[in-house]
Write a structure and sequence with these properties.
The protein is an alpha+beta fold. The chain contains 42 helices and 35 strands. β23 and β24 form a beta hairpin. Its EC number is 7.6.2.1. It is a multi-pass membrane protein.
């Protein structure tokens, strides 16, 4: 009964969540569940500190589960997952068919391999789910302090209930969504880090309601008996509406009072809170997206290949069935086909004979589809991820101690076929480490540095840029890379306008929401800011002599130097009266403060467009000059902000403050009313100047992008930055260059501005859409003209978010896609997270190209999930992008290794594995098919049942796995040196139907060799006792030839052969002989067959000649193909054939062996050149050879006793033997 009500409650919460998200909270919907029809409420009521009152509602517990299965669902759900694969369903059908009387094989021989494959897959699923279960247990059993009987009791997270009062200490994580009641900081303030939630590492301020500040001690908290009425659980991280009813007083609640699960407490000794949402109903859990199930393109093509194989199987069976119906005849009297013959051999019912023979042959030929293919590929991919990608030192970032992480093993080979990369800019291409670099104060530019983008632009123009040497006064610390002696150490007092400089520095030191941390000294203090830009601006103020060192809810303390006179330092306390916070709509932030002398000032900083709109009339020269400086900074790739201030009279401020308080206490449209009130005071501003902050490119980004471009990969940058910054970053990254023809589609045109000024939204939308359509058409015509010319330039497209919104309209989407696909580079600026995902989906679905998205922030999640492959940068913006990704790396430059090395190798290996599986199974099945022609199409088996069953599982299984793990066409360094090799993967050269057809031709050829050579040569053969060879003698001989040949054929397709190849191939052949030696002792039909065969000379001649003849065609084909129609990698192999191979060293890096110094020396010695000495006749090193080479390479290798002895023996001879 409780389970039924649990479903009712979950349905109610889900429906009410839908209602709240659409804004119709008053609407209730009826849910039909048997005869019960509960109504979904618009809100939930929580009784704080009263479990008994909450008990009837039965809120969900705080335990979470991220597992895929539980004890009861594992078997049925796991089997369902396995039988979603066509091949497994096929083998289940074959197993069932083999249990019928018409089956020519023993049922166990089909059931056993299928059971083994399913068992391995289920064990893998169980292992992965067990790891998830262990992680859940660690989280659910984390301790938290709960108020019980007026004292704090420690309980695990999973035992928390809605309404409980809990205490969380500094650096602790919030176990559920909490209502903040009180904290140890003044005025009920606490500081929260939300990195696990939204990716931002900067601290956020949360403030308790004044009415609950006193509930800090367990005694006082026990007196709290409030009632919370709030929204139903939903996934909106930034909204929360509710009321706290305490002592008949209703107080409005906002997101400022909500502490979300997964966030951590910072800079606060402890807080006390009431549990609002628990477990799966917390906002973070409702945002925990199930990463969409992605299947690689190669795997989908594999399904088509299996369907083709099934079609071939049916065709072969149909031929046999029809021939059987024709062949059956009473004239073959020795077959006993009289009236009493069973249906499958009754000449009077030829249709019945044909139908039953069809099913018999399906069972007989079932090996054409490899049963171990999927499990082998899964094993290969899993090891590739865990041992190669995750442990590649070339993708290890030492500074952050971060290695590459493959979060899924389904898409390894997809990495080798990527054609389009969609990249975020900030934090992905750039470091997201902001540094104050230049500024403009009162119309004068300060700062002498040259940005990377300016340096790159100069090089493009052919100008040699001299490195600027920093002055003695230059200071470089985190967030500050400024050099200009005119402003440093009080020198600004000598500038033409020192008062404006003073206002500039004070604006930097006061207008922010930064929190100081640590000792109150300039050297030791650290700043926690809502964005890296803010921290950089406050750090700049500190270095200019205006050191912000303390904050309270109402005061900011600044230590000012050189203000009244040089060398004088004074601490000044500024009273913060109001803070008008920054948001994406306002694009500015303001602070109203009172000086110690009573002066009232509004400081404002924000985007140039919004600040200029609010400047007072006059002073046009300064506005014009500063705008020129802003354009100059933008061209240098710097992020700009404008600073302004306004002096306020007490009367104006008091009048405005009344309206501000009313808006702040409003329960409806509070944010909108606050914005409207802010407009009343943020006007008639006086321009101070502007700041320019540099966000440097990550190390190696330009080189990586150039390498990827040479590999045939097209890179698109999708960013929220303005167009000028985005274009300049694109230049700095080598994404755009002067040789390219650029198409720029922007909404910042005079015609569009003119229409926007009229304010008619319908007209604006219509006009912009027409303009975008016109631009797209013009650009597309020009692009086609450039492409039709022989030496036409490469093309680049730049489009902003507003135009993109209309270009993504269904009527213009095709035109945008055609233009974009013709461009080598595309930059989309001012785009929203949704637009990023839309652009990615446009190329993925419209162009049917393989796409990869890479980003580092929460705003990149939708783009990462929309692409075929999602890559997360584990950088400074938390882990949300990583958690939603398929692969995670620490730096953008590692993308070259991930794609050009691991991706290409994985693609080549998986292609070889699939085509080889296809070849060996088709070859084996065709020998049985040819035998059918000699048996009157009766379904007589050629091979023993267990030969057929173990062929895939044991005798040919291991070598192909070795190829999938260790085969390398060229080394990692050559893969990056010749990125053009990657184009073979983009074109899918190694898994085309032509390649499959070639393998099929060799299967037909080899199967005919096996069958005809063995049967014809054994026709007149006799064993040592004089008896002719029987069926099982011939089939055992043929099977031996098949096993030897297909295993040797594997070595012919390997580009690099390791000891593992030899061990696996030799071991597989040896396994067959061991098996048949033992099996033929106990099995009646093949009793002592192998012993009889091995007693004849015929056996040894056959196993020597048949494989040679069978592989001769492959050998000739491979030689002709390599000489006259070589692949790109084969050309590179020939170029570097005489160079030492770095495979072993690369392997050491990949597998990340941790060697002791002694082991390292032994490994180095093992890699030294070897040669044979003719003197001794043994494969030892020539005298002193090892020591000599060791000395050349700086490796200490002491001479061995036998070295000295052999040297002595050499000297005793009159001549020295020549070395090979």
């Amino acid at each position: 009964m409780s389970g039924g009500w649990e479903r009712v409650r979950s349905t109610r919460s889900r429906l009410s969540r839908d209602v709240s998200l659409t804004g119709r909270s008053s609407t209730s919907r009826t849910v039909r569940l048997g005869r019960v029809q509960p109504q979904a409420p618009g809100h939930r009521t929580i009784h704080c500190n009263d479990r008994e009152a909450n008990f009837p509602v039965r809120f969900k517990g705080n335990s979470i589960s991220t597992t895929k299965y539980n004890f009861f669902t594992f078997l049925p759900k796991g089997l369902f997952e396995q039988f979603r694969r066509v091949a497994n369903c096929y083998f289940l059908f074959i197993s069932i068919l083999s249990m019928t009387p018409i089956s020519p094989v023993n049922p166990i021989t089909n059931v056993a391999p299928l059971s083994l494959v399913l068992l391995v897959s289920l064990i893998k699923e169980a292992f992965e789910d067990w790891k998830r279960f262990q992680n859940d247990m660690v989280i659910n059993n984390s301790p938290v302090e709960v108020l019980q009987d007026q004292k704090w009791e420690t309980v695990p997270w999973k035992k928390l209930q809605v309404g409980d009062i809990i205490r969380v200490k500094q650096d602790g994580f919030f176990p559920a969504d909490l209502l903040l009641l009180a904290g140890t900081n003044p005025d009920g303030v606490c500081y929260v880090e939300t990195a696990n939630l939204d990716g931002e590492t900067n601290l956020k301020i949360r403030k308790a309601l004044e009415r609950t500040w006193d509930y800090l001690t367990p005694e006082k908290a026990a007196e709290f008996k409030g009632e919370v009425q709030c929204e139903q659980p939903n996934n909106s991280l930034y909204t929360f509406t509710g009321n706290l009813i305490i002592q008949k007083q209703t107080l409005p609640l906002s997101p400022n009072q909500l502490l979300l699960r997964g966030c951590s407490l910072r800079n606060t000794e402890y807080i006390v809170g009431a549990v609002i949402f628990t477990g799966q109903e917390t906002k973070v859990m409702m945002n925990s997206m199930n990463v969409p199930s992605k299947r690689s393109t190669l795997e989908r093509k594999l399904d088509k290949l299996i369907l083709t194989l099934f079609g071939s199987l049916f065709f072969m069976c149909l031929i046999g069935a029809i021939a059987s119906g024709i062949f059956i005849n009473r004239k073959y009297h020795y077959l006993g086909l009289d009236e009493g013959a069973p249906t499958e051999f009754n000449p009077n019912n030829r249709f019945g004979v044909a139908a039953l023979t069809l099913f018999t042959l399906i069972t007989l030929y079932s090996t054409i589809i490899p049963i171990s293919l999927y499990v082998s590929i899964e094993m290969i991919k899993f090891i590739q991820c865990t041992q190669f990608i995750n442990k590649d030192l070339h993708m290890y970032h030492a500074e952050t101690n971060t290695a590459a992480l493959a979060r899924t093993s389904n898409l390894n080979e997809e990495l080798g076929q990527v054609e389009y990369i969609f990249s975020d800019k900030t934090g992905t291409l750039t470091r997201n480490l902001m540094e104050f670099f230049k500024c403009s104060i009162g119309g004068e530019v300060y700062g002498c540095g040259i940005t990377e983008i300016e340096r790159g632009g100069a090089l493009r123009s052919g100008i040699n840029v001299q490195e600027v040497h920093k002055s003695v006064s230059a200071i470089h610390e985190k967030g500050f890379n400024f050099d200009d002696s005119r402003l440093m150490r009080g020198a600004w007092r000598n500038e033409p306008d020192p008062d404006t400089c003073k206002e500039f520095f004070r604006c930097l030191a006061i207008c922010h929401t930064v929190l100081p941390e640590g000792d109150e000294s300039p050297e030791k203090i650290t700043y926690q800011a809502a964005s890296p830009d803010e921290a950089a601006l406050v750090t700049a103020a500190k270095n200019f002599g205006f050191f912000f060192y303390r904050r309270t809810p109402t005061m900011i303390y600044v230590r000012e130097s050189h203000v009244e006179k040089m060398g004088k330092i004074q601490d000044v306390a500024y009273e913060i009266l109001n803070v008008l916070e920054f948001n994406s709509t306002r694009k500015r932030q303001s602070v109203v403060c009172r000086y110690p002398d009573g002066r009232l000032v509004l400081y404002c900083k924000g985007a140039d467009t919004v600040i200029y709109e609010r400047l007072a009339d006059g002073n046009d020269d300064l506005k014009k000059i500063t705008r020129g400086h802003l354009e100059q900074f933008g061209s240098a790739g710097l992020r700009t902000l404008c600073l302004a201030y306004r002096d306020l009279s007490p009367e104006i401020y008091e009048s405005w403050n009344e309206k501000f308080i009313q808006a702040k206490s409003s329960l409806r449209d509070r944010e909108k009313k606050l914005d409207e009130v802010a407009e009343l005071i943020e006007k008639e501003l006086i321009l101070i100047g502007s700041t320019a902050i540099e966000d440097k490119l990550q190390e190696g980004v330009p080189g990586c992008i150039e390498t990827l471009s040479r590999a045939g990969i097209k890179i698109w940058v999708l960013t929220g930055d303005k167009m000028e910054t985005a274009i300049n970053i694109a230049y700095a990254c080598n994404l755009i260059n002067n040789e390219m023809k650029q198409f720029i589609i922007s909404s910042e045109t005079d015609a569009i501005r003119e229409v926007e000024n009229r304010g008619d939204q319908v007209e604006i939308a219509r006009f912009i859409k027409e303009e975008v359509k016109k631009e797209l058409k013009t650009c597309l015509e020009e692009a086609q003209h450039c492409l039709n010319t022989v030496y036409g330039p490469k093309l680049a497209l730049v489009i902003d978010g507003k135009c993109l919104m209309y270009a993504l309209d269904p009527s213009l989407r095709v035109m945008l896609l055609n233009l974009s696909l013709n461009c080598s580079s595309v930059v989309c600026c001012r785009v929203s997270p949704l637009q990023k995902a839309q652009v990615t989906s446009l190329v993925k679905k419209g162009a049917r190209k393989i796409t990869l998205s890479i980003g580092d922030g929460a705003n990149d999640v939708s783009m990462i999930q929309a692409a075929h492959i999602g890559v997360g940068i584990s950088g400074l913006e938390g882990m949300q992008a990583v958690m939603a990704s398929d692969f995670a790396i620490a730096q953008f430059r590692y993308l070259a290794d991930l794609l050009l090395v691991h991706g290409r190798w994985s693609y080549l290996r998986i292609c070889k594995v699939i085509t080889y599986f296809f070849y060996k199974n088709l070859t084996f099945t065709l020998t049985q098919f040819w035998f059918t022609f000699h048996t009157g199409f009766s379904g007589q088996r050629f091979y023993d049942d267990w030969f057929q069953s173990l062929y895939n599982v044991i005798f040919t299984a291991l070598p192909v796995i070795m190829v999938g793990l260790f085969d390398k066409d060229v080394s990692a360094s050559l893969s990056k040196k010749y990125p053009q090799l990657y184009k073979e993967g983009i074109r899918n050269v190694f898994f085309k139907w032509r390649v499959v057809g070639t393998w099929a031709c060799f299967s037909v050829y080899q199967s005919l060799i096996f069958y005809s050579f063995v049967t014809i040569s054994s026709a007149g053969g006799k064993n040592s006792s004089g008896k002719v060879f029987g069926l099982w003698d011939v089939s055992t001989m043929a099977f031996t030839c098949v096993v030897i040949t297909v295993n040797l054929r594997l070595l012919m397709i390997c580009n690099s052969i390791t000891r593992w190849h030899y061990i696996s191939v030799g071991g597989s052949i040896l396994a067959w002989f061991i098996f048949i030696f033992v099996y033929s002792i106990f099995r009646e039909n093949v009793f002592f067959v192998i012993y009889v065969l091995m007693s004849t000379f015929y056996f040894y001649v056959t196993i020597l000649l048949v494989p040679i003849v069978a592989l001769l065609g492959d050998f000739i084909y491979q030689g002709v193909q390599r000489w006259f129609f070589p692949y790109d990698y084969q050309i590179v192999q020939e170029i570097h054939r005489h160079e030492p191979d770095d495979n072993s060293r690369a392997g050491l890096l990949e597998i990340e062996n941790r060697l002791t110094p002694q082991e390292e020396r032994s490994y180095a010695i093992a890699q030294l050149p070897r040669e044979l000495s003719k003197h001794t006749g043994f494969a030892f090193d020539s005298p002193g050879y090892e020591s000599f080479f060791a000395a050349q390479l700086g490796i200490y290798a002491p001479q061995k006793a036998w070295d000295v002895a052999r040297r002595a023996s050499v000297r005793s001879r009159p001549t020295t033997s020549k070395k090979n």
